[in-house]
Amino acid sequence: MSSDAEMAVFGEAAPYLRKSEKERIEAQNKPFDAKSSVFVVDAKESFVKATVQSREGGKVTAKTEGGATVTVKDDQVFPMNPPKYDKIEDMAMMTHLHEPAVLYNLKERYAAWMIYTYSGLFC
């Protein structure tokens, strides 16, 4: 990843391309439990962030960010990427590259006006 000084060459566009160094350091220091942090299928939002409460017989019970407790099939649960990958511009670098992770990343980037992204060798 480039430092803020290296990104200065992009001038006013830099904040729209990549998170600042300060934001990246803060994201790396956020507490994160890789075993329980997941996305679950949701009828209204497609996918929502959740924390796994239990796994039993092919079913997963999780508590969503909204506070609801849901039980879904095991194949409707997707592992979440660590916070250091939030708003990442090259999605091929993500630990977990699946539909909810890509959609979440795009949503977060667009909300921050960081509209340019790519995945791997091709833009």
Automatic annotation (TrEMBL):
Organism: Rattus norvegicus (Rat)
Gene Ontology biological process terms in this record: muscle contraction; sensory perception of sound; striated muscle contraction
Keyword terms of this UniProt record: Actin-binding, ATP-binding, Coiled coil, Motor protein, Myosin, Nucleotide-binding
Alphabetized SUPFAM superfamilies for the sequence: P-loop containing nucleoside triphosphate hydrolases
Domain Myosin motor: 86-123
Database matches in InterPro entries: Kinesin_motor_dom_sf, Myosin_head_motor_dom-like, Myosin_S1_N, P-loop_NTPase, SH3_Myosin
Family, as annotated: Belongs to the TRAFAC class myosin-kinesin ATPase superfamily. Myosin family.
Protein name in UniProt: Myosin heavy chain type IIx
Residues annotated as domain Myosin N-terminal SH3-like: 33-82
A GO cellular component entry from the record: intercalated disc
The keyword ATP-binding appears for this protein: yes
GO MF annotations in UniProt: actin filament binding; ATP binding; ATP hydrolysis activity; microfilament motor activity
One Pfam family of this chain: Myosin_N
Lineage: Eukaryota, Metazoa, Chordata, Craniata, Vertebrata
Gene: Myh1
Keyword field contains Glycosyltransferase: no
